[in-house]
Predict the structure.
Amino acid sequence: MTRHEWPLFEVFVRAKRGLNHVHVGSLRAADHEMALHHARDLYTRRNEGVSIWVVRSDQVAASDPAEKPSFFEPSADKVYRHPTHYTIPSTVPHI
Amino acid sequence: MAFDDAYSALTDHDDDARWAYGTGFSDPLASVPSSVPADVDGADLSLYCLMLGDDALILSHRLQEWVTRAPELEDELALANIALDLLGQARLLLSRAGVASGASSLAAVEDVLAFGRDAAEFRNVRLAERSDADFACLVGRLLVMVTWRLAAFDRLASSRDPMLAAIAAKGVKELTYHRDYAAQWVVRLGDGTALSHSRMAAAMAELLPLTGELFATHPVEARLAVAGVAVEPVSLRAEFDGVMAQVLEAATLDPVLPGPPVAASGEGAGRDGVHGPELDEILREMQSVARAVPGGVW
């Protein structure tokens, strides 16, 4: 009998102290409902999360590695875009 | 001004920066008084905690047997998580059984009870010790066991024994997930392919007639129910039947009514320490290390 593999899903977990969902890994599941169950069982066992997103890996549009020079290198010499060029008021945390 | 720092509304104030690894672990039982209420019979309470604890301990062991043998890696971990939750419930309940019976050395009482008793002293229902022929039997049996247990723990959360109430309240959240997991698989297999349907149907047709024992009232349960400590199993029947009917319908499986209580059918009940050879097999493995190296620590 041929064995059909379940599709791959990407998992994003928001931690209690996190403001955004962070990619934590991937898993296989038959559908979204099962993917959420599996994500809960695989990626939140140590009290990491308060919210989970799953998305089918083949639904993710990714940048083309061949376009790396034109995509990313132009920003390499624009150091003035970093906030370290400005004076931050002492009352602004988390930067 | 309240909005001086917009970030403070979003984050918790503590020094714990390890958020990526999970934080906020707590012991919900830490502040629960451990003394047994004065008008509650300690021996009865101890036996009752053994019944509930042994159900979890033995079912947990059966689930652990699927580790390395589950059909998918993700489900293997799911089953291990559930087994670990049940083992946690068993530890708390066996400890409570020790306290209620007035055990002198409490430190190791859960180990003594788990690893030092013979089969005839175990009080789990016989459905807990049953081995699973396939994955359909496993998820079907899990659904039956945790549906009953969730209904029981829901009511035990208001038990007059404060420790039992706290253990039950903690367990309700775990069992809710276990039931969800098992139900999802029963529906998926029942309402799946012709092959998965026939195997799920065969599993449920075999299991449901064996559920009678879950609803037979033991004298200890009857006495403690009057005292407001325990729950009469027969009172769980309506909720159990309702949940099972709902899941079986969604799974396109025939509803099968639970059989008569085992005590009535003359086979002898697990709650009285009457077990099949399957429990001997479990205990041989589960107790082998503890019996070979008494009190061993690693």
About this structure: The longest helix of chain B spans residues 162-190. Chain B has a mean pLDDT of 87. Chain B has one domain: 39-290. DSSP finds twelve helices and no strands in chain B.
